[in-house]
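Researcher: Here's a chain I'd like modeled. Treat it as a single chain, no partners, no ligands.
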Amino acid sequence: MRAPTDSRSVPGPLRFATAVAGLAAGALILAAFAVPADAGKKKKKKSKKTDDIVDVSAVKAEFEVYTDGEGGYFVVAPGDTDMTFHGDGKTMYRQRSISSSRNGAKWSRRMWSPRVDHVADLSVDGGKGTMACGEESYDVTQVTGAEATKIIDKAVFKKPLWTRQAHALSRDDRGVYYYVDRNLPEYGGKGYRLFAGQKGAMKELGLTNIVSDSEGEIFASKKGELRFVQEQTKAVWIKGDKRTELVSVPLDRNLAMIYGELGVYEGSLGTPCDEY
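Model: Modeled as a single isolated chain. Structure tokens:
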């Protein structure tokens, strides 16, 4: 018997099964070529910035927590000079420690804090202490028990907030300052910036060329006609054909003025004496 060639000669159940199979095959083909509505959109991956996170796991058990009672906290490992943090209890920035001492429960830590002439001393004895900011100071008390554990466990410990340093400073006889800063050595040491103006009103001048050799440095601005030439013992500001001799200002004796009065740096430096 020949196989039926007319679908009408195929039994009803077989015709139904064949139709269903055909529909399923068509659906598979359509699905294979279908393009999702969001196929052209790349899903953004949530990136976590970890470069500035400090691993404190090795000293976590040694941490002591202190508060100024006004929302400021210190988290310190008294036996490790590098493990000194200050912040709001949630985000804690590592402090650049200059020196430290310890005798049992009595210890102290001197930290970089340029707005108070480089002097910031935290001294603790038996759970109570004092944070000295130049001639001013405030008290701190130890946080213990579950509250201290909660702060230590939940806080994010970061590298120092401030990443730049003063490089050169000069002024003319009208009080116009010319200032250059750069990245700290651990951040590459370059990235120079040039600022000019009177205190509180200094403006950044974009640089196009930097010359540095044994005889001094030249910082040329975008306009190409303004140059700040800083030599070992003197400096000059050049605008076109006009030269203005400048007085070199020692950086180490003027840190509080540089970081607090020039107006170049606004906001927190991440130190415990920013407001003093």
